[in-house]
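User: I'm preparing a small set of examples for a lab meeting where we compare how different chains pack in three dimensions. I only have the primary sequence for this one, and I'd like the structure in token form so I can line it up with the others. Please keep the answer compact; I'll paste it straight into my notes.
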Amino acid sequence: MKIPIRKITREANFLSLTGNIAIAFFGFAGFALMARTFPVAIFGQWVLYISSGTFIEMFRFGITNTAIIRYLSGAEDEDRQKYIGSNWLIGLVATIIVSVILVICHLLFPQPIKNAGYELFFTWYPLLAFVNLPFNTALVIMQADLKFGKMLLIKSMVSGGFFIVLLVNYLFFKMTLLQLIWAQLLITLFTSIICMIYGWDGLRNIRKATRKTTKILLDFGKYTTFTLIGTNLLRSADTLIISLSPMGTAAVALYSIPMKLTEIQQIPLRSFAATAFPKMSRASIQGKMEEVRSIFYSYSGAMTYLFIFISLMTFVFAGFFVLILGGSNYMGTDPVTGVNIINIVRIFSLYGLILPIDRMTGIGLDSINRPDMNFIKVLIMVAANVIGDLIAVFIFKSLPMVAVGSILFTAIGIWIGYRFLHKELHLNQRLVFTAGLDFYKNIFLKSKNPHHLQS
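Assistant: Understood. Below is the structure token output for the 455-residue chain.
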């Protein structure tokens, strides 16, 4: 029997995974080009600009992103327009507030900001915040509707376009860091304009925002905002604390290589999570709690088995990945800091083994309208991580110990998150592993029988 390739490629999980792989490729390749284009200290400034921007994005979009996905998953057309309008209104206000605060801080404390390496962020992120608002809003609406094909198109325009600029610059032009930031702004602006022209961002619905829908999103978002900020802080706190330590921006650049490589492990995790959350939310809104449990078991088990393979590959080929991403300058032991990046990569490969259950417990709590529990879980994880980072950096002056701390705080999060979710859903942990095997069996059966495949 012919394998229905065309139908498989239209399936939500496949499109989500393909999109994240493509975007990750552009991200990794662009990161590698930047590492080879600039000296370590200058490259460290770029890392701080990107990581700080990512952190602020969590605040801007964390207010509504999780909430809008949940409520759009089960909304009728009229309510849908109101939710989209409220989402736009909240996002615009948040962007204005964040930008004003950053500009004022830059005017009041220019020298300390420059000395810490954050001048690029405080100067240019306020402009980027307005430029990327339409296309980011379009992405979250498409995720709620499971339109991963269009999401891939939008992300490719931004990530692919900037990668082409970096490649051409590396081969021919040798632009400055400031010029590359301007190129990033122009590409982002072009993508947002496309989203607005086709109406993908939902800006036309802003006038339909109501006090009720705005309050619903904010009530949900007051927890998910800090949950997303906390989740990002779990990743960016390492960079922030290292940058403030005596090791400086050079250590930031070194640590950014293994941190970037951990995103290889995050590709399938983000892909599965992007499809699992709308499905679990829809089932929860409809009162189908058995279906919520089934989705949790299936996705948690499938990702756990997949991550065993991914972590093994990362551990075995750690040196190869460092060479590809950072170049020969990052191989071996750094003479200044005494750090061997390959060892840190191998530590992070173990970290990947426990990520699936951690992510799915968070998604599960949000989908059943318990973002408060997810917030408590992440808050405890952040506190544990920050304390561990401070001890590792300022007392032991050890980057590998920072990576070990990441494993410990994630293990704490798994234990807390699973206990919270178990109280609501009465989970059976054995079914995680059996459902994971069934997930792959079903994929195999679908490839053999077109009638079993659902797009």
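A couple of notes for your slides: The chain has 19 helices and no strands. The chain has a mean pLDDT of 83.

User: Perfect, thanks.
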